[in-house]
Write a structure and sequence with these properties.
The protein is α/β, with parallel strands linked by helices and about 375 residues long. It folds into 2 domains: about 170 residues, 3-Layer(aba) Sandwich (Rossmann fold); about 180 residues, Rossmann fold (3-Layer(aba) Sandwich), CATH 3.40.50.720. The chain is built from 14 helices and 14 strands. The strands form 3 sheets. The protein has a 7-stranded parallel beta sheet with strand order 9-8-7-10-11-12-13, with helices on both faces. It has a 5-stranded parallel beta sheet with strand order 3-2-4-5-6. A two-stranded antiparallel ribbon has the order 1-14. α2 packs parallel to α13 and α6 crosses α8. It is globular and about 65 Å long.
Length: about 375
């Protein structure tokens, strides 16, 4: 299928000014190959010499004279690869989080590393948050059981209008959640490490954005607590037993970020004892969690298998971003979204203009398109 997003083509004079680079793609496992591989080929293959790493062959010859490595999810690269990457000018992680990437080892090898900013996945993650909110507030599991048992007109649900959504993190995804929450009439509050100007709060319809010292206050006020943080030593288990105890008994926890942001044992206890009303989870401390995981056995949990960012749009946008960084290296420019140290992956940089440059197209076969 064709997706309705494509990056504006570089100007002819820009292409003439670029060197043609040697780019090596570290492909994902077979069940993840498409559309990621197709979009990388489309975005980069025509302008640079793109090759695919063969994990069964020696790395030294494959990495020789390579200018840029594109690492799917930041999870395919190994120390053995970094050891033979002396010519590499950029290691581009085709993903946002780097909690599973050995950044310090790459830094010791003086290999620049960049990730894909959160705004490239902000839209689909925000949509999943809204989906969880609707499922939880309308008693999704009970409604499905009732339907199977011919029980109609139950259960009763709650409306979103007038309820409070607390965003833990107000970066690329948090801002997109706030935009969509406004359409449902939700009151939105947020906590973030950065200072957010009044103009930005107004643009996204947020009542207040305060520093980390207001986290307990946010948890206490919110009917929905939604997590939008990178996993770092400072954020690991940031939602623990104490913070769960501060939540309203009819409140819901939503996590589409990283499982380890939450103390899962404490969450299981809170859900079993009705300390909180429920949870919507797209991420787990261990993945896959296994079908017998206690969280998946609870009637007040809705869950998905870490698919919040798995959309055709995400693949297109990340490929376009990787292509932009390859082109910047080719032009002798500094690449975007460089990660100097592990802590600064959590620092928000506004890439909304890059996303706006993505040109909308009509997908083939959609309403209003014509056959050629």
């Amino acid at each position: 299928m064709e997706f309705p997003w494509a990056l504006e083509c570089p100007k002819k004079e820009d292409l003439c000014a670029m060197n043609r680079l040697q780019v090596l793609f570290l492909p994902p496992p077979p069940h993840h190959q498409h559309p990621w591989e197709d979009d990388i080929v489309e975005a980069i293959g025509a302008r640079h010499n793109l090759s695919f790493c063969d994990y069964k062959m020696p790395f030294a010859s494959q990495f020789r004279d390579i200018d840029v490595v594109i690492d799917f999810g930041g999870s395919m690269g190994t120390r053995a690869m970094a050891d033979v990457s002396g010519s590499v000018k950029l290691w581009q992680v085709l993903g946002n989080g780097i909690d599973h990437f050995e950044l310090e080892y790459w830094r010791a090898k003086e290999i620049p590393v960049a990730n894909c900013p959160g705004e490239l996945t902000g839209m689909p993650l925000a949509e999943l948050v809204i989906m969880f909110m609707l499922q939880l507030s309308r008693g999704w599991h009970q409604s499905q059981e009732n339907l199977r048992n011919n029980v109609m007109h139950a259960p009763f649900g709650s409306e979103l209008q007038g309820r409070t959504l607390g965003l833990l993190g107000f970066g690329g995804t948090g801002r997109q959640v706030a935009l969509r929450a406004r359409g449902f009439g939700l009151r939105v509050i947020a906590v973030d490490v950065r200072q957010v100007a009044e103009a930005e709060r107004t643009e996204f319809g947020v009542e207040w954005v305060r520093g980390p010292e207001a986290l307990d206050q946010l948890v206490q006020q919110s009917d929905f607590v939604s997590l939008h943080l990178h996993l770092t030593p400072a954020t690991q288990r940031i939602i623990d037993a104490r913070r769960l105890s501060l939540m309203k008994t009819d409140a819901f926890l939503i996590n589409v970020s990283r499982g380890a942001l939450v103390d899962e044992g404490a969450l299981i206890h809170a859900l079993r004892t009705n300390q909180i009303a429920g949870a919507g989870l797209d991420a787990f401390s261990r993945e896959p969690p296994g079908f017998d995981h206690p969280l998946l056995q609870l009637p007040n949990v809705v869950a998905t298998p870490h698919v919040a960012g798995q959309t055709y749009g995400t693949s297109k946008r990340r490929a376009a971003f990787a292509a932009e960084n390859v082109d910047r290296i080719a032009r002798g420019q500094k690449p975007l979204a460089l990660i100097e140290k592990r802590d600064n992956v959590a620092e928000f940089s506004d890439f909304s203009e890059f996303v706006r440059q993505l040109k909308p197209l009509v997908p083939r076969g959609s309403a209003g398109s014509s056959k050629g």
